[in-house]
Amino acid sequence: MSDLTYAYAQPSALTHAPEGAALQLAAYAENAPASGAACFFQGRLRDSWLAARGLTTLAKVVASRFVPQSAALRDPIVTAGAGLLRFEAFSSCNGVYARLDLGPAALEGEFLSSGTTNVDFNEPMVNALSRVARAEPVRLTVGQTEVTLERAAGQVTERKVTLPERWIKGLTAVQGYLALMEEKMTLTRVQATQLVQSMPAGTAKGDFFLVLRGPRPSFAPVASAGAVRVGGVHRLRLLDGLLPLCESLRVFATPDGQASAFVLALGGGHEFVLTLSAAVNRGFSGEGNQLDTLLEDLPAEWLAGANNLFRGNETFNPTLFAMAHDLAPGTVDRLCASLSAMGLLGFDLAENHYFYRRLPFKTDRILKLNPRLKNARALLDSADDVQLVGVGAGGRTEARVRGTDVWHTVLVGGPEPARCTCQWFTSNQGQRGPCKHILAAQLRFG
Asked: Given the DSSP bridges, would you call strands 208-213 and 216-220 parallel, antiparallel or unpaired?
């Protein structure tokens, strides 16, 4: 996969004036019109100190790396719409996803347009944010206005950014995990502070499990009833600066324990979400959690119609949508997975609904980010690479699928999970989505 390289026309900056500070976030979108990025929001932050704490924590996540060979990345994306600004970002290793939501209560101003854009998070701007004082007025602009685009020749400052496509892939994959999560516990501010105090020292080598012992949360090395699996628990230290400020902390996890999320209600329309992959060495970009739902191509008119509907409504509840249009839940699940994989939907845990946002990248770039599915379809190009062995009781199908210098035995269908003899399946046991051999057998034999 090739990386995406782009440049901002000017750097983001926090400038100071007698009437207050102004935070100008420079924007870039690969799919923007030739005239350049629009201005999405202009106004002020009602609680600039709290918003600045959220933004500096987001920058802390973006600058962090928990796998040594990962490349440093700096920039989040911002979605403007439905009266909110949503800042989304990843750690450099792609295993931590963070989002800061500024709702209507946090903003006073005008949404000039809806959309999603990359924004420049340069170091001087982030350092300036960390020095914002309590009650200091700060105006915020996301994107460029016509005035800021009218600048003298020679004064343009470009900062080139290389964005690995795994970053884009992770951003689409993590929404599938969020949509599956269930709320496990809610902690008060005092309990959230105790959570920090109970965190194991140093770098955690294995899994820890978050439990409530009476009213006090703690981490245990062994699972127990009601415990939440947290892989790489030391990554939660990214929240050190926000946990003492939160009004409540809601903890979510997927039923299979492959991802966990921590939702901090900060008050005044500010909310921060931190999502952790199952282990430090697992980036969300390598997950195949939505591949099963992408096996069958949905009619193009369904995707186009849903895209238009979500763009108008900007929020979306799958259950209500299925009931209103008399669609089977499975059909809506596939529709959501397809739109998420295309970068058209994010998921809001606190509100338990999807939100529309079109990632600021070309759609054809995003659609190329499922190599396992692409390789599975390539196996079907030859009639001999996927062979039926037989169909057993309960509709269990056994197949032989060609691998590299070896044939693999694949079992699909029936009430049991699919299985394969390849190394990928042996190592992951289906926890990171199906291998290409299982996908090929499912495509051929239904």
From this structure: antiparallel
* DSSP codes of every residue in 189-205: HHHHHHHHHTSPSS---
Is 11 exposed, middle or buried, given 0-12, 13-18 or 19+ CB atoms closer than 10 A?
Answer: middle
Burial grade of 207 (CB within 10 A; 0-12, 13-18, 19 or more): middle
β-pair type (77-81, 159-163) = unpaired
For 122, the 3-state DSSP assignment is coil
pLDDT of residue 146 exceeding 60, the answer is no
What are the boundaries of each domain within the chain? 4-164, 371-445
pLDDT at res. 275 = 97
Alpha helices in 64-140 (DSSP H): 123-129
Provide the angle, in degrees to the nearest 10, between the axes of the packed helices 300-313 and 329-341: 80
Question: What digits encode the pLDDT tens for the residues 108-140?
Answer: 999 988 888 888 888 888 888 898 989 889 999
> Among candidates 119, 131, 134, which has minimal Cα distance to 12?
119
Q: Which of 32-46, 228-242, 328-342 has the lowest mean pLDDT?
A: 32-46
**What is the pLDDT at residue 32?**
66
Please answer whether residues 51 and 109 qualify as being in contact, where contact means their C-beta atoms are separated by less than 8 angstroms. no
Among 247, 250, 278, residue whose Cα is nearest residue 183: 250
What is the rounded distance in angstroms from the CA atom of residue 421 to the CA atom of residue 412?
Answer: 12
| Alpha carbon 281 to its chain's center | 17
pTM of the predicted model, to two decimals?
A: 0.81
Scan for tokens 């600045």, then name that residue.
52
Report DSSP state, residue 201: S
Instruction: Determine how β-strand 138-143 pairs with β-strand 353-356.
Output: unpaired
Could you give the CA distance from residue 285 to residue 444 in angstroms, rounded to a whole number?
26
- Cα–Cα distance, 132 to 117 (Å, whole number): 24
Q: Helix (H, G, I), strand (E, B), or coil: what is residue 228?
A: strand
| CA separation for the pair 316, 82 (Å, rounded) | 12
Res 75: pLDDT = 81
Q: Does domain 4-164 have CATH number 3.30.1050?
A: no
The residues, ordered by sequence, that sit 6+ positions from 385 with a Cβ below 8 Å of its Cβ are 379, 401, 402, 440
Q: How many residues does the chain have?
A: 446
